[in-house]
TrEMBL record:
The chain crosses the membrane at residues 395-417. One of its GO terms (biological process) is regulation of DNA-templated transcription. This is HTH luxR-type domain-containing protein. Signal peptide: none annotated. The keyword Iron does not apply. The keyword Membrane applies. Keywords: Membrane, Transmembrane, Transmembrane helix. It comes from the Bacteria. InterPro entries: Sig_transdc_resp-reg_C-effctor, TPR-like_helical_dom_sf. One of its GO terms (molecular function) is DNA binding. It comes from Winogradskyella eximia.
Amino acid sequence: MSLTKSKNLLTWIVFLLCYNLFYAQNNEVLIDLREVDSLNKLYYGKHSEDAYIAHHKNLRESIKMQYPKGIASAYKSLMWYHGVNKNSNLDSVLHYADLFESKVATFNTKSDSLLIKFVELPQYYLNKGQLLSNAFGLPEQGLESYFKVYPLIPKGDTKLSIAYNISIAEIYYQKFQYDKALRVLTPLLKDTIGIGSFTKKRLLKNISANYVQKDMAEKSYPLHKEILNLAIKDNDINEIWWIKNRLTNDYFRLGNPKKAIDSALVVRKYCLENNDHQLIFNNTVYLSTFYHAIGNLKKAIAYRKEAIQYSSGLETKKDVYDRLAIYYTENKKYTNAIDIYKKKNSIIDSIRSNEKKAVTNYIESNVKLLKEKQKSQQMQFNVELLEEKNKKQKLYLFSISIALMTIITLLSSILLYRKYRKGEKVIEVLKTNEKKLLEEKITLRENQLEASAIAVTQRLETLNTIKEELDFIKQPKIPKLEEAKTKINDLIRSASDMSIITKRIESEYPTMTTKLIERYPNLSDTQIRYCLLTKLNLSIKETASILNVTPDTVKVARSRLKKKLDIPPEMSFKLFLDQLAKE
């Protein structure tokens, strides 16, 4: 064989080997991408251990292959997982939400339009808002996420539009604004054709829940019956028993306590047999209320005591203790009532302690957050700079390794590789520090959210309710009872302290108090307090609770203040204070 033929043959062999290697590598990538998409579709929305493993596998493989679609999907799935599993964690939810939104921000609106459509941004923001408002009790932050949904809803997408409005109505429900929630939800009933059973049941449940809170059983009952029919049609066992339990309360509110008790006992039997703790708590509370209504205090007390072991959260347990103390008082078991009130007071003290801690952390967090923002921005710049340098080094290393096979090329490659590894280590250190800063930032944000959740008026109403109940117990005169009354009076005076409210207004509207004093020197301290509470947009009832006066006193005081401040009749007191703050 000639030398020329041998060279040609060798060239073809090398070409075929390179082609086969290239094809095999690309074929393997295609298989991996299909597997990533398949796993994401299979496990999205689930919160089992298998789902957790699958999400992390998708994330690792997608990062390795630089597959943006898989990376974004994994972040979104992990956010939902950490929000709905039994060990839900707010830090993890916010962490993966931030990673997802940062990744989506890198997509180009035109060239990545299909990718943006795939990640379903409207549904993502709905899910995030539901986790924040429903799972973690942060309605304001949930509402902020919902606001990002509206501009993204495609025209004619009835299902997504209904889901958005339901989410907004749930915020109103949490804020006890039931009429506003109904104004949002009721018009949606005409668009329920073709939206699916799940969405329709969710809509009906939200509407009925608001009617229940308004004590309008004649409205909630037909809605609950319609939900029950849908649940039976879907063979949704949990939904069937949930709605049957709700119907027991409708029977009671419609004036049929016997039917309510009989139905509730049937639900109770199912709960005990199936170990449904969440449902049995509601069921037990209902039974206690029903038996109390028919005068059977013994059973009412027994079921209310049983509800304590199924209650979750301090607020829920506090309400159970409150009702149990009332039952003991009606049964003339004053010692038991006092003991229950002590336990309730202990819970209230715990809630107040958490609130004070949140206020302290909020102040410290604001100072620390300002310092950390600048540090985080500088670190991010350094990371991006090093990553850009490493990309260039990687490209240069790859080009040299392919083009040159000599000793000089090998030595150069080793040198560049060492530099690359050194840069990678620096990046790892910087990313580790950035992660720590992110965790601290999330903690700061959580503290800020906790601080904003202080419900002064609710505490005062609770304390006043306790005080009224204790005042009701007049005979016999028990020293410990009198001591408890004194403590509660002290708590009411302490909770009515205006210093925190004043600081809050001054932080947003500096020198508000000073302006009032300078312009109206004849105002008393009490009148200035009325101005500040009105500026906070508190209602007459809430103002009365804080100042420990009657609502009529507040009305009279506001009317006199309007005259004293020469406020025109057509202008509201609140608008006048807003204009004064802007001056």
